[in-house]
């Protein structure tokens, strides 16, 4: 290579470097300019962002499901918005659209809280401790705010994720939204990263996993839009996992496509990423009084609820259960599923004594067991 060509090449490399540097400098300048405008720290009042959020027909809030501080902040936002505008409703990922009748019955005091949890199949459809969401549901009930079940039945999405459309029935196929947008390649890549974190999937199932997630997003957007069509003068606040909200890829873009209306987004305790949301809120970790546990591992086999393992350090006087015990009832409440046990435990406290009836060695016996405190990270 001649010296002249070497010099020209150096100038070219320098020019490209300067060009790229200028691009990043502009981007960095924009990030710095916007950085403090859309961030709320734990001690910042949420009221300062309510006027801007209120400009949206839909407000989609992303959460971390197992962080109580996230749900406390969601309630704070709902309360602040309710102070400004009584014409509002709350849509929840943790409730299914097919259970809307039970949701409405509970809000109108036609059924009890336990019946509400049972009829919505809360512990089998969602599974997280109900105390995470109880205060939000209670506030809506007290103030006659509509709660909207957003989600599709878990079994449908799970079966599609594992086996594609061959995994569902014709009736379940009818539940899938008519419109599904496959065009967002960035969302597909991000879901691909999530897929690789799931050890229970095989690589060949990645397409099914992506399809299943799109179905869930589209279904929740459709649920919100259906409510909006019936109540066009209401603002709808949606609560869902951060992954359904970031960059608008999940629910927000699909909701805007259907409605043509504006959507504001909030992410709670998410990694700050410019343009991923309208607002980012950060919280301090909070403790929650979780439902206690039996301190055993259970499985359902051939219709029987069986004890499969017990921690080695278990106090036998407080927990006399043994492996292979078949649980029949707790405090005379018949147990037909693991969800029945969770339903029984949801309003109990650690340290309470319970009477468990089991079959052991083909004999029915009654045992006294002390409920154990659940760990915060469980």
Largest sheet: 7 strands, parallel
Secondary structure category:
alpha/beta
CATH topology call of the largest domain: Rossmann fold
Secondary-structure element pattern, one letter each:
HEHEHEHHHHEHHHHEHEEEEEEHEE
Strand content: 15-25%
Find the count of extended strands (DSSP E, 2+ residues): 13
**Uncertain segments:** 2-31
Q: Which key terms come to mind for this protein?
A:
Rossmann fold; 13 strands; 3 domains; Pdz3 Domain; four-stranded antiparallel sheet
Topology:
Layout: H1 3-35, E1 39-40, H2 50-53, E2 58-63, H3 68-84, E3 88-96, H4 100-107, H5 113-119, H6 122-125, H7 131-142, E4 146-151, H8 154-163, H9 170-173, H10 185-195, H11 206-230, E5 235-241, H12 251-259, E6 263-268, E7 279-281, E8 297-301, E9 304-309, E10 326-330, E11 333-334, H13 338-345, E12 353-360, E13 363-370
Parallel strand pairs: 1-7, 2-5, 2-6, 3-4, 3-5, 6-7
Antiparallel strand pairs: 8-9, 10-11, 10-12, 12-13
Helix pairs in contact: 3-7, 4-5, 8-11, 10-11, 11-12
Report on this model:
The protein has 13 helices and 13 strands. It is α/β, with parallel strands linked by helices. The strands form three sheets. A seven-stranded parallel beta sheet has the order 1-7-6-2-5-3-4, sandwiched between helices. A four-stranded antiparallel beta sheet has the order 11-10-12-13, covered by helices on one side. A two-stranded antiparallel ribbon has the order 8-9. A hairpin with a 2-residue loop joins strand 12 (353-360) and strand 13. It is globular and about 65 Å long. Residues 2-31 have low confidence and may be disordered.
């Amino acid at each position: 290579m001649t010296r002249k060509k070497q010099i020209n090449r150096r100038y070219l490399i320098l020019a490209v470097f300067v060009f790229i540097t200028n691009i990043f400098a502009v981007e960095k300048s924009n990030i710095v300019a916007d950085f403090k405008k859309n961030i709320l720290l734990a001690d910042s009042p949420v009221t300062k962002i309510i006027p801007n959020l209120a400009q949206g027909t839909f407000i989609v809030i992303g959460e971390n499901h197992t962080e109580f501080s996230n749900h406390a902040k969601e309630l704070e936002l709902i309360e602040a918005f309710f102070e400004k505008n009584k014409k509002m409703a709350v849509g929840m990922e943790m409730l299914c659209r097919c259970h809307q009748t039970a949701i409405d019955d509970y809000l109108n005091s036609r059924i009890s809280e336990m019946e509400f949890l049972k009829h919505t199949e809360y512990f089998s459809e969602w599974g997280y401790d109900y105390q995470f969401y109880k205060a939000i549901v209670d506030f809506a009930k007290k103030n006659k705010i509509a709660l909207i079940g957003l989600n599709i039945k878990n079994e449908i999405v799970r079966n599609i994720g594992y086996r594609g459309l061959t995994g569902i029935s014709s009736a379940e196929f009818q539940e899938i939204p008519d419109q599904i947008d496959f065009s967002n390649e960035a969302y597909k890549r991000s879901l691909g990263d999530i897929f690789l974190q799931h050890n229970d999937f095989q690589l060949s199932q990645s397409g099914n996993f992506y399809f299943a997630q799109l179905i869930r997003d589209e279904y929740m957007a459709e649920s919100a839009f259906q409510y909006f069509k019936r109540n066009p003068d209401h603002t709808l606040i949606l609560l869902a996992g951060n992954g359904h909200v970031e960059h608008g890829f999940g629910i927000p873009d699909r909701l805007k496509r259907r409605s043509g209306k504006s959507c504001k987004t909030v992410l709670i305790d998410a990694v700050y990423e410019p343009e991923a949301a309208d607002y980012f809120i950060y919280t301090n970790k909070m403790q929650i009084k979780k439902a206690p546990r039996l301190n055993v591992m259970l499985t359902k086999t051939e219709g029987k609820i069986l004890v499969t393992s017990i921690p080695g350090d278990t106090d036998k006087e407080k927990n006399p259960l043994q492996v292979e015990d078949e649980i029949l009832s707790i405090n005379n409440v018949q147990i037909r599923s693991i969800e029945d046990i969770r339903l029984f435990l949801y309003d109990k406290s650690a340290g309470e004594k319970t009477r468990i009836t089991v079959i052991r060695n083909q004999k029915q016996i009654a045992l006294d067991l002390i409920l154990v405190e659940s760990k915060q990270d469980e």
